[in-house]
């Protein structure tokens, strides 16, 4: 498996397919998902391609299916998702499918139309029923009033109008009854009052039950109203207003007997309508249930057909029209599989002519294809989102599987928090299949689930570093007996201790042999804990950082070796290694020397190796670069750690400085000389060609675009003018030299975040849980119960989620910037195979959005 | 009868499992008088001799151990309640 460390070897192939067999072959390739087709007629308009009709038909089918799906969802019928993956149907089956969908759609539309008409009818009848019922009350009042005082109550408002009313005897009041939306009532009333100058009498009553609007399906509240008025003019006016307010008017007979009869009639009609409506609903339901069983299956089929025709549109027609020509990128290792798939396709289509697969030579850069599985894909995604690796360059993913969780854990070192994270990750990993089947559209959850293996590893590594730091929710565990003991403890001494105690390794308190594993738990209570931890963690992060960077530079060696790029190795890799080792790795060595040589002691004879004489590494290093002597305390004799330190440091510094012009000038000068030579003897200069092409880390990074355009054919680097080569090399050198300083400092974030995390969790314990634990007496139990849950929630939200996210981002940065800048060019474009799996997944996502 | 929704009962379930484990362990650590927990004891205001100081400390440790176990027991009850609720929620969601 050479493809673990590099992307797979790709080759451009030409594929000749017999017209009849093309469909079946492409379908087989889509199931396989290992072939990326190239568009052979990019100049042709989408509408002028060969299979545009078929694509259009598929689109139409998809639209019908979406309509069906919408209707199914509206009725809340569960759609059966068996997860089965039917093969792309034969082209002739397409007609059957089309017919089925057509029939279903028409049926459904008809049913819907009928249902809507019926519902409208039903609504009208219900409204009429309500009117009859409500107005009954008004009429009852009316008649009651009329019996008592025939003229008074009804004519009062009209008196002022004129005296004609009186002359004609008892007034004949007309009325209209109708139904209106409840929220329109106030405006309606005001309008009536104004337009008719107060000469109408409006009574209204609310309908308690909401009615269903047939066109929208919403539940609306309505009111019944009845308007009394006199005269035809007013009648037309009132009717106009009713129309304007979209009120529905219903005829309402005046005689009580007629009304009663009408009410009876309405009731029977409603009942009839109810049965018909029920039957319509049943029918609709049956149709939809039948469709729901197959809809997912149909979707898959239609999308596959569409994808196949889309792909066929990319092909070229042969002159004889008998065969289709395709060009595709193929992983070399999978050629066998592809041949088999093609043969299957030919057999299925019953064609006798086997398809021909030809390997082609090309100058183009092939796409980058990394084989991944469910474990490595998340790690690969980390780098792909930074920039797709150039073809066949070293893929950092395998190393990242360890370095990423490890650097994360250095910042997130707490056994308790790590355990929570690891449990969460492990749960997702163990429940992988049921969780994946759920297909949640919650974006945050999907991110977590996609990175489940990273989360689990990060959690496990954090548990380890938590044990090293001896932090479990900011408390230390004394598993192996602390090496510190309390000596000469007296009453007076205890009285003097106010807060905490300073641990001094020079005294007898320290037993002399260190704690077996990790940090001594005694430090947790010490006053000088942070001072001690800072120096320890800072050194640790520098050591790890420089190792990490050196590792990155080492990877660039293997990359250049692979591309047979001797020039880059001599002119870049070697000076880079020398520069980094002689300056920065030397600092790491100094740290180890200091750890081994110096120790805390109060004895006179140990003074020169004691705490006061131990030189500061940073000062030593700065003075080494500035070429200055380091001052030392009296009695220490020297500020050097070993004999001949000054000389060695001068030598190292000299070598490192030599490397700068070496990096800056050697490569351009060599290229220039070579060019002059080749101008004299026009020979091949392949070695140089690859030198400039692949060694450039400062190339712009192509983001992971979904439609990465294939780059223009390579092989143009020889034409790059010398000035540009100089400038590139200058930028590259400056970036590396300044970078190694700033990147080394950048790794201090390992210390800073780990300090922040430890302090934050300590503060949380002190400020929250401690308050519950220090409650005196038996009430403490209750207090602990309540406060623990608050503390637990805060621990999860702040320390695990927020701090975890920040540590994750810093780790990502360390990998992208500090690590990748040493070797990664990331100038490739992704391999996008024609695969049904991917197409269906994408289609599903789009639908959910 | 379901009082809590599915999310609340799940949350209660997780916190009470965590609480039972951690508080039971902390109770044990208090019982064996772990120095790391010395800061998390009620303040000792006055003492006459070293022995008196020790006695008060031991007292405080024991009291806190009991308190932790009480809290752990309360979480055990919470666990039972939320597990029951969780089960109810699950069952009702299945039957629909």
Automatic annotation (TrEMBL), chain A:
<comment type="similarity">
    <text>Belongs to the V-ATPase 116 kDa subunit family.</text>
</comment>
<feature type="transmembrane region" description="Helical">
    <location>
        <begin position="778"/>
        <end position="802"/>
    </location>
</feature>
<dbReference type="Pfam" id="PF01496">
    <property type="entry name" value="V_ATPase_I"/>
</dbReference>
<feature type="transmembrane region" description="Helical">
    <location>
        <begin position="578"/>
        <end position="597"/>
    </location>
</feature>
<keyword id="KW-0472">Membrane</keyword>
<dbReference type="InterPro" id="IPR002490">
    <property type="entry name" value="V-ATPase_116kDa_su"/>
</dbReference>
<dbReference type="InterPro" id="IPR026028">
    <property type="entry name" value="V-type_ATPase_116kDa_su_euka"/>
</dbReference>
<keyword id="KW-0175">Coiled coil</keyword>
<keyword id="KW-0813">Transport</keyword>
<feature type="transmembrane region" description="Helical">
    <location>
        <begin position="646"/>
        <end position="666"/>
    </location>
</feature>
<comment type="function">
    <text>Essential component of the vacuolar proton pump (V-ATPase), a multimeric enzyme that catalyzes the translocation of protons across the membranes. Required for assembly and activity of the V-ATPase.</text>
</comment>
<dbReference type="GO" id="GO:0016020">
    <property type="term" value="C:membrane"/>
</dbReference>
<feature type="coiled-coil region">
    <location>
        <begin position="51"/>
        <end position="135"/>
    </location>
</feature>
<feature type="transmembrane region" description="Helical">
    <location>
        <begin position="540"/>
        <end position="558"/>
    </location>
</feature>
<feature type="transmembrane region" description="Helical">
    <location>
        <begin position="401"/>
        <end position="430"/>
    </location>
</feature>
<keyword id="KW-1133">Transmembrane helix</keyword>
<keyword id="KW-0812">Transmembrane</keyword>
<keyword id="KW-0375">Hydrogen ion transport</keyword>
<feature type="transmembrane region" description="Helical">
    <location>
        <begin position="450"/>
        <end position="469"/>
    </location>
</feature>
<dbReference type="GO" id="GO:1902600">
    <property type="term" value="P:proton transmembrane transport"/>
</dbReference>
<protein>
    <recommendedName>
        <fullName>V-type proton ATPase subunit a</fullName>
    </recommendedName>
</protein>
<keyword id="KW-0406">Ion transport</keyword>
Automatic annotation (TrEMBL), chain B:
<protein>
    <submittedName>
        <fullName>Uncharacterized protein</fullName>
    </submittedName>
</protein>
<dbReference type="GO" id="GO:0016020">
    <property type="term" value="C:membrane"/>
</dbReference>
<comment type="similarity">
    <text>Belongs to the RNase K family.</text>
</comment>
<keyword id="KW-0472">Membrane</keyword>
<feature type="transmembrane region" description="Helical">
    <location>
        <begin position="69"/>
        <end position="88"/>
    </location>
</feature>
<dbReference type="InterPro" id="IPR026770">
    <property type="entry name" value="RNase_K"/>
</dbReference>
<keyword id="KW-0812">Transmembrane</keyword>
<feature type="transmembrane region" description="Helical">
    <location>
        <begin position="12"/>
        <end position="32"/>
    </location>
</feature>
<keyword id="KW-1133">Transmembrane helix</keyword>
């Amino acid at each position: 498996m050479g493809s673990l460390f590099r992307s797979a070897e790709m080759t451009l192939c030409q594929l000749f397919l017999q017209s009849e067999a093309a469909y079946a072959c492409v379908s087989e390739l889509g199931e396989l998902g290992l072939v990326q087709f190239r568009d052979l007629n990019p100049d042709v308009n989408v509408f002028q391609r060969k299979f545009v009709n078929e694509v259009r038909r598929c689109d139409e089918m998809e639209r019908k299916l979406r309509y069906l799906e919408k209707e199914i969802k509206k009725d809340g019928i569960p759609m059966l998702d068996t997860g089965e993956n039917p093969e792309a149907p034969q082209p002739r089956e397409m007609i059957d499918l089309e017919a089925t969908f057509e029939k279903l759609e028409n049926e459904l539309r008809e049913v819907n139309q009928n249902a809507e008409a019926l519902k409208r009818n039903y609504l009208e009848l219900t409204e009429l029923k309500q009117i009859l019922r409500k107005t009954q009350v008004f009429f009852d009042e009316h008649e009651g009033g009329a019996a008592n005082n025939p003229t008074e109550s009804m004519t009062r408002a009209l008196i002022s109008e004129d005296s004609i009313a009186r002359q004609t005897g008892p007034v004949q009041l007309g009325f209209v009854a109708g139904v209106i939306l409840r929220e329109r009532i106030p405006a309606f009333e005001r309008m009536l009052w104004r337009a008719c100058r107060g000469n109408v009498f409006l009574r209204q009553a609310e309908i308690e039950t909401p009615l269903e609007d047939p066109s929208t399906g919403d539940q609306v509240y309505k009111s019944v109203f009845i308007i009394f008025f006199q005269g035809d003019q007013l009648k037309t006016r009132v009717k106009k207003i009713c129309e304007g307010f979209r009120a529905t008017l219903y005829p309402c007979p005046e005689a009580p007997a007629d009304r009663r009869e009408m009410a009876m009639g309405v009731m029977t009609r409603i009942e009839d309508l109810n049965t018909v409506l029920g039957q319509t609903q049943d029918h609709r339901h049956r149709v939809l249930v039948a469709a729901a069983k197959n809809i997912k299956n149909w979707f898959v089929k239609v999308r596959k057909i569409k994808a196949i025709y889309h792909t066929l549109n990319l092909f070229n027609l042969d002159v004889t029209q008998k065969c289709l020509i395709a060009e595709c990128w193929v992983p070399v290792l999978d050629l066998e599989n592809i041949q088999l798939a093609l043969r299957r396709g030919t057999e299925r289509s019953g064609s006798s002519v086997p398809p021909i697969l030809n390997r082609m030579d090309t100058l183009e850069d092939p796409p980058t294809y990394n084989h991944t599985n469910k474990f490595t894909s998340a790690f690969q995604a980390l780098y792909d989102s930074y920039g797709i690796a150039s073809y066949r360059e070293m893929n950092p993913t395998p190393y990242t599987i360890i370095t990423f969780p490890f650097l994360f854990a250095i910042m997130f070192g707490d056994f308790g928090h790590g355990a929570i994270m690891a449990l969460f990750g492990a749960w997702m990993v163990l429940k992988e299949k049921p969780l994946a089947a759920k297909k949640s559209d919650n974006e945050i959850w999907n991110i977590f689930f996609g990175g489940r293996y990273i989360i689990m590893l990060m959690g496990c590594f954090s548990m380890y570093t938590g044990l090293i730091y001896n932090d479990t929710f900011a408390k230390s565990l004394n598993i192996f007996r602390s090496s510190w003991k309390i000596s000469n403890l007296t009453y007076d001494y205890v009285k003097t201790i106010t807060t905490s105690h300073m641990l001094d390794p020079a005294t007898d308190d320290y037993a002399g042999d260190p704690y077996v594993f990790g940090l001594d738990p005694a430090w947790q209570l010490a006053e000088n804990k942070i001072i001690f931890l800072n120096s320890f963690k800072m050194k640790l992060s520098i050591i790890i950082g420089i190792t990490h960077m050196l590792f990155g530079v080492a990877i660039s060696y293997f990359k250049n070796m692979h591309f047979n790029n001797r020039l880059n190795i001599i002119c870049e890799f070697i000076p880079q290694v020398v520069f980094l080792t002689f300056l920065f790795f030397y600092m790491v060595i100094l740290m180890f020397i200091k750890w081994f040589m110096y120790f805390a002691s109060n004895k006179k004879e140990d003074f020169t190796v004691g705490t006061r004489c131990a030189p500061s590494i940073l000062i030593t290093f700065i003075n080494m670069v500035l070429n200055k002597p380091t001052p030392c305390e009296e009695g220490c004799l020297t500020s050097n750690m070993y004999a001949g330190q000054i000389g060695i440091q001068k030598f190292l510094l000299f070598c490192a400085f030599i490397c700068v012009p070496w990096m800056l000038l050697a490569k351009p000068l060599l290229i220039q000389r070579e060019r002059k030579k080749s101008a004299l003897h026009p020979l091949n200069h392949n070695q140089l060609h690859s030198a400039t092409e692949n060694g450039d880390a400062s190339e712009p990074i192509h983001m992971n675009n979904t439609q990465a355009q294939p780059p223009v054919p390579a092989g143009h680097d020889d034409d790059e003018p010398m000035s540009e080569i100089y400038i590139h090399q200058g930028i590259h050198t400056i970036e590396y030299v300044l970078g190694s300083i700033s990147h080394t400092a950048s790794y201090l974030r390992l210390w800073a975040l780990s300090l922040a995390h430890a302090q934050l969790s300590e503060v949380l314990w002190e400020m929250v849980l401690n308050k519950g634990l220090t409650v005196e007496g038996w009430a403490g139990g209750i207090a602990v119960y309540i406060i623990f849950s608050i503390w637990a929630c805060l621990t999860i939200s702040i320390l695990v989620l927020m701090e975890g996210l920040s540590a994750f981002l810093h780790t990502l940065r360390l990998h992208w910037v500090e690590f990748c800048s040493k070797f990664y060019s990331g100038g490739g474009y992704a391999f996008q195979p024609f695969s049904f799996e991917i197409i269906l997944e994408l289609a599903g996502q789009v639908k959910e959005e | 009868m379901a009082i809590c929704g599915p999310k609340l009962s799940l949350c209660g379930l997780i916190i009470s499992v965590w609480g039972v484990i951690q508080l039971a362990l902390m109770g044990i650590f208090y019982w064996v008088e772990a120095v790391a927990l010395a800061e998390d004891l009620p303040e000792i205001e006055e003492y006459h001799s070293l022995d008196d100081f020790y006695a008060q400390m031991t007292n405080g440790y024991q009291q806190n151990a009991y308190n932790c176990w009480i809290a752990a027991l309360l979480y055990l009850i919470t666990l039972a309640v939320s597990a029951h609720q969780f089960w109810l929620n699950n069952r009702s969601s299945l039957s629909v």
